[in-house]
Amino acid sequence: MKILVSEQIAVKGIEKLTQEGATVDVKPGMGRQELLDIIGAYDALIVRSNTKVNEELYQKASLLKVVGRAGNGVDNIDMEGATKRGIIVVNTPESNVVSACELTIGLLIASCRNIPRLYNRLQGSREWNRSGLKGMELQGKTVGIVGLGRIGSLVATRLKSFGMHIIAYDPYISDSRFKNLGVDKKEKLEDLMRECDILTIHTPKTEETYGMIGKEQFKAAKKGLRVVNCARAGLINEEALVEALKKKIVASVGLDVPEGEPEATSPLLDFDNVVVTPHAGADTVEAQNNVGITIAKEVVAALRGEMVPNAVNLPTLHHGELENVKTHLNLGETLGKLYYQLEKDAVEKVEILYRGEAAELETSVISLAILKGLFEPVLKEQVNYVNASFIAESRGVVVTESKESVVDNYLTLITIKVISKNKEFTISGTIFGKSEIRIVEINGYEFDVSPAPYMLIAENTDKPGVIGQLGTLFGVGKVNIATMQVGRKISDKRAMMVLTVDSEISKETLEFLSGVEGIIKVRFVKL
Ligand code: NAD
Ligand code: MLT
Fold first, then answer.
1. Which residue has a Cα nearest atom 12 of ligand 1?
2. In the chain, which end has fewer C-beta atoms inside a 10 angstrom radius, N or C?
3. What atom of ligand 1 comes closest to residue 206's alpha carbon?
């Protein structure tokens, strides 16, 4: 595991990476060209918000498997480019939210009470002078929050204790969440703009949110509005904000994210009623330790091929869910791996049926494991959880999922039907106890097989002597059989044998086996 850290993260994070056996190069402040020159040697890159992870970088990053964003916002990372290449992007969305919220409150009070200017007069000019700098109390005022997610709701809770009235605009948050937080929901951004004395924005930077507070919104605002942006540059159009400051529509700004990062070029820096910090929302000892340790664990887990809860380009798994899902991921991947080892026809459609407990889980991620398993025998390590569904789509494979809450005989059951031009292939599997995977059906033949690294699967006519002959040939080929099961279709006079064996089976032995009278098809399967 060779990992490049291109921006400063906590020492504890670096220590964690090293403890896990990674070779780590920490190069904060390195130039773009140097980054492009060296990235080809690394399996993972850890960044904060300065490093642009884009096509130019991906093209040089032939070994790159994981991008770790030590923080939350991933607007500096080209997600589509990563997904296409199977590069997993992980972040730490929970680790710095308290710090970001606290800086928001800090900037809000600092700007409403002119703290930096008063400080400068006293400390800088040794001038005991409060004149012209009367502040505004928070109690009784209305704060308008745009984006009531993790940070927005922490801000709401804290500002309530100041005796403020809280209104918010977030069309993606349920009414009940608004109710639980004691926040008045505004259906339209304009309504919020009209009513609030203080505006604070906490959305991610997306196509929809970029510039969402602009000229029109400031037109609707109360004169003397206070503005805070501790989220991302560009959410509030800077030109419009400059104009609103000049026209005194906006009385003060608290800003952690001026445009131009990492250069100090924003025109807002010229206003002394703008209190500004250089993207320092997450710069506390606590947040940086949290972020550093979390990103180190996640990057290492992702490099080891484990599921990571905070993978941005994978379905989200909530805390605790990962453990439940893990065994089903193994089961799904195992079942998926069998198709191309048993059949040669190109897949056109994959129908996945989840029954019992499986139907209650986050099945989208299990389906990814099935697709990963399906394509692995053909594409080897080029396929992973991140690009599995992209690969299916680009090969024209249609994937459907259905669920049934009850199932006879099993607590949980996954059945995959693989449809090709000429046939249909089915395979089903379950889990016994906590984590024992079993294959219980292949193409209508029923078994109870514990999958093993080496297996032999043979279809034969159901008549005496076939199994005996196979046994003799295994002896000759020095192959030790560990277990054997036979599934039968009495009406078709056919049977399927599934054997687990202790070692690989040579091509010659397989050829001998396929020549045995009564053997219809025999395949060696590796899991
Ligand atoms: P979050 O995903 O938990 O919440 C974002 C909220 O915005 C969601 O509830 C979402 O529904 C809402 N939203 C999305 N589009 C919207 C729209 N068009 N209109 C209204 N609401 C919309 O994110 P978070 O963890 O609370 O982070 C919020 C912001 O803070 C992000 O931009 C993040 O990058 C930034 N951040 C900054 C710092 C810092 O150092 N300054 C630190 C951490 C996070
Ligand atoms: C984030 O998105 O987490 C913040 O911008 C903080 C950071 O990157 O340090």
1. 147
2. C
3. 15
Structure-block tokens of residue 91 = 């972040």
Q: Beta strands 250-255 and 225-229: pairing type?
A: parallel
CA 163 to centroid of ligand 1, rounded, Å: 24
Question: Ligand 2 centre and the CA of 18: distance in Å?
Answer: 23
pLDDT tens, residue order, the chain (527 aa): 999 999 999 999 999 999 999 999 999 989 999 999 999 999 999 999 999 999 999 999 999 999 999 999 999 999 989 988 889 999 999 999 999 999 999 999 999 999 999 999 999 999 999 999 999 999 999 999 999 999 999 999 999 999 999 999 998 888 989 999 999 999 999 999 999 999 999 999 988 999 999 999 999 999 999 999 999 999 999 999 999 999 999 999 999 999 998 899 999 999 999 999 999 999 999 999 999 999 999 999 999 988 787 888 887 666 667 777 889 999 999 999 999 999 989 999 999 999 999 999 989 999 999 999 999 998 876 788 888 988 899 889 999 999 999 999 999 999 999 999 989 999 999 999 988 999 999 999 999 999 999 999 999 998 888 888 888 888 887 889 999 999 999 888 999 999 999 999 988 888 988 998 999 999 999 99
As a whole number of angstroms, the longest Cα–Cα distance in the chain is 106
Atom of ligand 1 nearest to the CA of 99: 42
Please report the atom of ligand 1 found closest to the CA of residue 154. Answer: 26
Q: Is 366 helix (H, G, I), strand (E, B) or coil?
A: helix
> Residue 282: CB within 6 Å of ligand 2?
yes
Would the CB of 332 count as within 6 Å of ligand 2? no
73 lines ligand 2 (CB under 6 A): yes
How far away, in angstroms, is 26 Cα from ligand 2 center?
Answer: 18
Q: Which residues contact 71 (CB under 8 A, 6 or more apart)?
A: 48, 49, 91, 92, 95, 96, 282, 291
CA-closest candidate to residue 354, choices 390, 337, 329 = 329
Residue nearest to atom 37 of ligand 1 (CA): 231
Cβ 70 vs Cβ 94: under 8 Å: no
